[in-house]
Amino acid sequence: MLDHVRALGRTGIDVVVSFGRSGQFLFGVLRGVPKPAVGFPLLVRQIYSVGVLSLAIVVVSGLFIGMVLGLQGYTILSDYGSESAIGQMIALTLVRELGPVVTALLFAGRAGSALTAEIGLMKATEQLSSMEMMGVDPLRRVISPRLWAGFYTMPVLALIFSVVGIWGGMLVGVEWLGVYDGSFWGNMQSSVEFVDDVLNGVIKSVVFGFVCAWIAVYQGYDCVPTSAGISSATTKTVVYSSLAVLGLDFVLTAVMFGNF
Amino acid sequence: MAQRTVESIVGLFMIAGLAALLFMALQVSGLSPKAAESTYTLYANFNDTGGLTPRGRISMAGVTIGTIDSITLDKKTFQARVKMAINSDVDNIPTDSAAVIRTSGLLGEQYIDVSVGGDMDSLKPGDTFYTTQSAMNLERLISNFASGR
User: Fold this and answer.
1) Considering the domain boundaries, does residue A102 fall inside one?
2) Predicted structure pTM score
């Protein structure tokens, strides 16, 4: 019995310790911004592997989610004879919620897990410690570009996701189901505000990108350097990122769109 | 892969992001500099436009023949002045036609329906509809009915 209580207490302390360590780690990474001449090529390469290579999955999911929204919206709205509100529905859903959130979930699965595995393997093969031996700070050289890459690419991916989704919704709604093109765009434009909706969506995706990249690089850096350790760190990255994204989404939505 | 190739691909990626933002600004949330179809302008004055919005549709016999350009308030008559862009190929609307604000379905958007008149002359660009019928206001209708007027 006492052992159980002790185990519970240890788990609690471990959670607090890992929060503290990740905060310390983040501080270290943010303080160690690499010099532009050295850091920029590294950053570009990371944006390529984190962002450009995630483009395919983001575009394809965006297209299908937009098309499904178009179909579902049409079926429901046509009962009330207001299927022309479909453009407004698709745009607001994508720009406010689905764009940032689904992109962040895809990002955690596609890029976050890869980051964790890469850094974890670097740690397991002692590349990180040999860098330290050579006087190169691994936080600065390896971690920092990856964190910033997540921060930059996430809003770009989310915007592309929303645009492709709206196009997919238009394809289904206007081209196939015959909603009038003028009222599709007209309703959308009269209800979507650039600052309130689009920019708030961008802010959301910036926050999500930062959190996902932070969790991914921290889990990689902090993993147990064995094959089992790397695999559990990768799993943790995806689980924690998804939970963090969904939880933060509620908080951000309440702050941005709730009226209090 | 060569650094230069990576840099140019990342550059394209960032440009795609900016293009997406531009699309959001212009097409989804704001004004769109759309390729101008050939149209001509007609006006109509209404006592009450209800929920009519710019870019709403104008139809005749259920077929869309144009879009609403703008809705402004005429300060002299306190009426709403609706500027309409009618497709140029519909150039034979009789002068005694009426512009009527209707609602599609019970909760749908409002649009302008042109009920065709019988005059031989047709409306010219810049003309104003002589007869109009304002948006039906359900609450007013019910309160009129309840107070027996």
Assistant:
1) yes
2) 0.71
